[in-house]
Write a structure and sequence with these properties.
single chain, alpha+beta, five-stranded antiparallel β-sheet, about 55% helix
Length: about 280
């Protein structure tokens, strides 16, 4: 596998402009957002490569049977095509690879994290007219077909295995130790999916202190989403300091301290102490 390298600053600025524009559109396009994330990670992913990924999703959708039936029939049709014939699935080693969070690489390798494999399932099924959506179970993303009263869940990470009610309960219990709640089965909107993908990228980078470059772009893309946790601003400031940009990092730490001072004066003073320490590194 070739090493990934970042896009040029000019290309990155254009990707981020488009990402922010798409995220704020009336109906955000999930595959487009995922490919913009991928292009921020992989400088070799150009416009032709992004178009090719979209065309592959179109082509896969064209191989599905025409209106196979209800939610269960759709789930089975997707499993047979993507899981069995095309070999899309995941394994434990996929959690160690950044490529597992990049849509174009998942399409190439037929491997990925549960949420990226679910994106493939959703985008192929949506193009074919299926009643499909993502379901953000705690610790494990799956796909759903049909309305709540007739919902069918499938696990793309397991090749599209159709889940029983007890299967879903075991997935949640294994991740959280808590029971499955009906609220966990509601459809996730595209921006929630993208936020979770970026969270996964940040978690991957956090386990690799030398990859602050990846952590920084993941945080900066997350900050472009219309709704995001304010704490991401603190994370970005701390990353700037870790990368040696002490002045900008200190300024952003001070700005964050002002933001939270009203609700948590003690935490604000702690952040100001971080800013003073960052400035001291200039001496």
């Amino acid at each position: 596998m070739r090493p990934l390298y970042p896009p040029t600053p000019e290309r990155s600025a254009e990707l981020r402009r488009r990402f922010a524009e798409e995220a704020r559109s009336e109906r955000p396009d999930l595959s487009a957002l995922c490919l913009l994330v991928a292009a921020e990670a992989d400088g070799a992913l150009d416009e032709a490569g992004m178009d090719a990924a979209q065309m592959e999703l179109d082509e896969l959708a064209g191989r599905l049977p025409y209106r196979p039936g209800g939610p269960h029939a759709w789930a089975v049709a997707l499993r047979e095509l993507l899981g069995e014939r095309c070999g899309f699935r995941g394994c434990a080693a996929d959690y160690e690879r950044l490529e597992s969070s990049l849509l174009h690489q998942v399409l190439l390798r037929r491997r990925g994290l549960p949420i990226l494999l679910s994106v493939v399932w959703m985008e192929v099924a949506r193009r074919a007219g299926a009643p499909v959506y993502g379901v953000a179970l705690p610790g494990h993303f799956v796909v759903g077909f049909g309305p709540p009263g007739d919902q069918v869940l499938a696990d793309p990470f397991d090749g599209g295995r159709v889940l029983t009610g007890s299967d879903a309960e075991l997935l949640v219990a294994g991740a959280t130790g808590a029971p499955l709640e009906p609220s966990m089965l509601t459809p996730a909107d595209p921006l929630e999916v993208v936020q979770r993908i970026l969270n996964n990228v940040r978690a991957w980078a956090a386990a690799r202190p030398e990859r602050t470059d990846v952590a920084l772009w993941a945080v900066e893309l997350a900050l472009l989403l219309p709704a995001h946790p304010a704490r991401l601003r603190l994370e970005r400031a701390q990353l700037l300091v870790r990368r040696g940009d002490f002045v900008r990092g200190a300024v952003e730490l001070e700005e964050y301290a002002e933001l939270i001072e009203v609700v948590d004066e003690g935490a604000a003073e702690g952040v100001r102490a971080e800013a003073r320490a960052a400035r001291a590194l200039l001496n």
